[in-house]
Amino acid sequence: MYGLITSVRNYLYQINVFKSTKFKVPTIVVGNLSVGGTGKTPQIEYLIRLLQNNYKIAVLSRGYKRKSKGFIIADENSSSEVIGDEPFQYYKKFPNIIVCVDADRTNAIQKLETLENPPDIVLLDDAFQHRKVQGGFNILLTSFSDLYVDDVLLPTGNLRESKSGAKRAQVIIVTKCPSTISEAEQLEIINRLKPSLNQQVFFTAIEYDNELKGSSTLNLLELVNKKIILITGIANPAPLTDYLKSLNIKFKHLKYPDHYNFKKHEVEKINALTLDNNNCVITTEKDYVRIFVGLQNLRYISIQTKFVAKSTSFDKLINKYVE
Q1: Alpha-carbon distances of 170 from 19, 128, 138, 173, 177, rounded to whole Å
Q2: Number of domains comprising the chain
Q3: What is the pLDDT of residues 203-226, one digit of tens each?
Q4: Domain holding 247: CATH number?
Q5: Domain that holds residue 274
Q6: CB count, 10 Å around CB of 221?
Q7: Cα–Cα distance for residue pair 206/237, rounded to 1 Å
Q8: Cα–Cα 20 to 30 A to 34, which of 3, 77, 151, 287?
Q9: Whole-model pTM above 0.85?
């Protein structure tokens, strides 16, 4: 039933029964076919770093789980509760870009175009299924350990729509790969994905910053032999926990669901852990900006996406589209 509904919906967009708006401003869509974390946030940040020196950028998100409605542009009064955790992270990290939220992306882009200083590019975060906007360039992400070709539709599996939806993408990126992935392994995955002639496949890995940030800075390697408490509220913390283990860092993991709405007594409990001098409490950057930003003695580990190979080819594709 779910597959039938999503397939009919996509078909109606394909034959123009449902309206899909195309904008003059370049629009780059980053999304996936699966629910859960495939690395959309670090990929958006990669695009920001690539383009921000030459173009005025707007990042548009629906602001998942925000306690507000309608179109909002982030400003000094914004918080993760008002605009959502990922948008707030973009706003805090990249002060020279526009960050906005709206469940109706068409409405949001129309409002952005009317600004006194409108953006040159709009990056749409998690909008691959938002067919009301016809993305100019579509980037589809799929996790190395959970390729969409190995998955099935909701509710049995994690796919939001049929695997055939991948055809809408110009670029497919296999994320969270081992940094040591070989060319033979890459070729095997490409053969399984079966991209069309107009699609290119890239491979990226997660790169962790060895300097913990937050209330104070601390080198990650200084955590060895210390009492570590790791707090996560993300879809898939496995890559982070595996990385810490690879550094021989032992930790107690307090794991919460993705975008978890922490209750007051839980925040107080976590704050008590940070105030205990025997503990070193760390979290992810997304969790930090969402709920922990006011706590003392808390640090976060930031990540970037790193292309295993052909990063120059990817950069040229993006710049060529924008130009």
Answers
A1: 21, 12, 6, 10, 20
A2: 2
A3: 999 999 989 998 788 898 888 888
A4: 3.40.50
A5: 210-301
A6: 10
A7: 12
A8: 287
A9: yes
